[in-house]
Amino acid sequence: TMTSALSYPLFLMFFAFAVVIFVLVVVFPKFADLFSQIADQLPATTVFLMASSRIIQQYWLLLIAGLVAMVVAWIVWSRTARGIQKLDWAKLHLPFIKDIFAQLYLIQSLRVLSLSLGNDVNIIDSLRACRDVVSNSLFQNFIHQIEEQVEQGKGIAIGFQNTSFIPPVVAQMIETGEETGNLPKVLRRLSNYYETELTNKLQTLSRLAEPFMLLVMGGVVGLIVSSLILPIFKLSRAVG
Fold first, then answer.
1. How far apart (Å, rounded) are the C-alpha atoms in residues 97 and 120?
2. Could you say which of 55, 156, 184, 195 has the lowest number of CB atoms within 10 Å?
3. How far is residue 167's CA from residue 198's CA, in Å, rounded to a whole number?
4. Burial letters 96-125, b for 16+ CB under 10 A, else e
5. pLDDT in tens, 121-166
C-alpha cells in the first residue's frame, strides 16, 4: 500500500530530475558561445546553470562514480547493526513518518496477536510471533517488554500504556477486551480500523504529493526557460 501510494510522486520526481539533466547536458551547451558575448550581463540563474552544465559535461564520470559510491555506502551502512538501529529509531520518532510506520507495525502485531489468540495459542507464544512479524528493533523491544509484564502476571493492556508511538485508545480497547474475554475480537477490530486509517492517510499523502511535485516541476521548468529567454532578449536588444 505504501509503495503504490508513493510510486507516482516518486516517478514525477525522477522525471523532473531527468529533464533538468537533459536540458543542462544537451540544451545549455548550444547557447554557451552565444551567451559568452554578454557574459557580464547574464542573470545569476543563467550563470549558475551554465556552470552546472560545464561541470556535468566535464566531470560526468566522477559524478556518476560519486553517486554510486554514496548509494553503496548507504546500503552498506543501513545493513550494519548501528545503521539498522538508527533507521528503526527514525521510523518511530521523526515527524510524520512515525505515524505511518507506527500504525503499520501496530496493524501487523495486532493482527498476528488476534489470529494467534483466536486459535488458542498462549499469550507468550502469540507475542513472540508478533516480534517475528514486525521488522523494527524498537517495536520488537516494546513487544518484549509486554512479554515480561505478562510473565509477571500483568495483562497486556498495561504494556500498551504510556508508549509514545501507541495511541491511548489502543490500551483502553485491549483492557476492555481482557475484562470481557473478547480480546481476539477486539484486536481484530483494532487492526482493521488502523488498516483503514493508514490506507486513507497514504491515499491523502499521494493526492497531496502529486500537485506539489507538479508545482515543483513547473517552477524548475520556469526557472530554466527564463534563464534561456532573458539572455536572448538582451542579445536582441544589443543587436538592435
1. 35
2. 55
3. 13
4. eebbbbbbbbbbbbbbbbbbbbeeebebee
5. 888 898 999 888 898 999 999 999 888 888 888 878 888 887 778 8
Grid cell locating 187? 484486536
* Number of neighbouring beta carbons within 10 Å of residue 6: 15
How deeply is 19 buried, as exposed, middle or buried, from its count of CB atoms within 10 A (0-12, 13-18, 19+)?
Answer: middle
Dist CA 231 CA 238 (whole Å): 10
Length of the chain: 240
Q: How many CB atoms lie within 10 A of CB 38?
A: 15
For the chain, the straight-line distance linking the first and the last C-alpha, in angstroms and rounded, comes to 60
Is the separation of the CB atoms in 130 and 143 below 8 Å? yes
Look-up: residue for cell 504510556?
A: 162
Cell triple for residue 47?
550563470
More confident residue, 238 or 38: 38
Cβ neighbours for 96, distance < 8 A, ≥ 6 positions apart = none
Q: How far is CA 48 from each of CA 14, 42, 84, 160, 220, rounded to the nearest angstrom?
A: 22, 10, 38, 54, 13
The radius of gyration computed from the CA coordinates of the chain, to the nearest angstrom, equals: 27
Neighbours of 177 (CB within 10 A): 23
Nearest by Cα to 153 from 175, 124, 174: 124
SS3 at position 182: coil
Q: Hey, is 168 helix, strand or coil? A: helix
Residue 153: strand, helix, or coil: coil
Q: What is the pTM of this model?
A: 0.77
Determine contact, residues 92/141, Cβ cutoff 8 Å.
no
